Amino acid sequence: MADNIDKVKYLIIGNSAGGIGAAEAIREVDKTGSIAIVSDEPYPAYSRPLISKYLAEKCSLERMLYRPADFYEKNNIKALLGRKIARLDVDAHLVEMADGEKLGWQKLLVSTGGLPIIPPTKGIKSEGVFSFLTLDDAKAIDQYLKHASRVVVIGGGLIGVSVTEGLVKRGVDITIIEMKERILNVMLDEEASAMADKAVRKAGVKIVTNHTVAEISGEGGVSSVTLNDGTAIPCDMVVVAIGVVPRVELASGKLKTNRGIVVDRFMATSSPDVYACGDVAEAYDFIYGMNRVTPVWPNAYMGGRVAGFNMAGVSTEYRGGTAMNSLSYFGLDVASAGMVMPLDAGYEVLSARYGNIYRKVLLKDGFVVGMVFVGETEKSGIAYNLMKDQVKVDGFKKALIAREFGLASLPDELWRPRIEAPRREFVPPVAVKEPGEEVAVE
Fold first, then answer.
1. 442 vs 380 pLDDT, higher one
2. Which of 34, 207, 217, 359 has the most CB atoms in a 10 Å sphere around its CB?
3. Are the beta carbons of 108 and 13 closer than 8 angstroms?
4. pLDDT for 222 beyond 50
């Protein structure tokens, strides 16, 4: 490596949950080693789930920050924000920026996140068509609302419902187009999805299921969309919210990839000194017992911490994450984790409905492998931790869906230690292995 190339001990590509988790873990172990974080976004780390709040209320960046504005300075981190990496050379331990600048590293974390899925729909590149993944996306939509009063949202998943709530609060007319038979079909079962559908429609949103958008029409701006059955829906704006795919372009041909970058239980990739975490990585899912892409915030952060500890020389194993979601939109609180629908007849399904409260758990061989809570979701963390800790629940399984479910519903030997422990809803622990001991890092 040429002597005139700047070098850092730790290079982190990505400035969201995974990258921040890694930087914090590194600094717990190595107080002085040089760290650089590179991000093509120009902002300090912010909470992406809050971009719907920005759209609805124009909440300030300061309110959205994931860490204080002085986080980088206090942790002696070189923040290269608004910079894009064009090339990764894992053999030379080198990255090249889009502007030609090169940066060397000893240990690398790829936490580049995901990219929005953009279908090859006719007219998809028209003015007035947006995605909804970053703060800049929310800002662009906000600006275009000056010219729009009718919006079509393509996709009725978590991203689609999130942007819809923000747009409802801006007073525009909205139609959701969902290709499957129900909204939120990945994170919810049929019962919970129907409850969400009712809440969204009550807010004045129109929902069209079992259809796709075949064409986006308009000259000088969107004027309508045409569905696959020929139905035309007038609109001034289209938001594509189908989902995300791992952003693997830097790793392609250099690291082992499947759907995402494949990592082991230490978040290490196929190349020495290179780690990956977050939405870009295929990491261990403790429910399925295999590596999967689980693009959710807590998994990204905890995977980042595991990567950071290992980068700094502390052997640390990722116990695994799983699909998990918690949302509060349209007056409806929902939480789900693991499997929401049984894979076959070998699962036991327990569910109960109490007015606007719904609870469901999936069991396999006496263990919780999935859950859906609608309404009063504050107790969902108890069920999640039973699932995460692989507690056999045969003796009290019906209590999990009872109206009064809580810590006191558990056997005495389970609830007493839990009631004194810190709350850990939807935060999988990390096993930090030192000689002769194993401790949880929260």
1. 380
2. 359
3. yes
4. yes
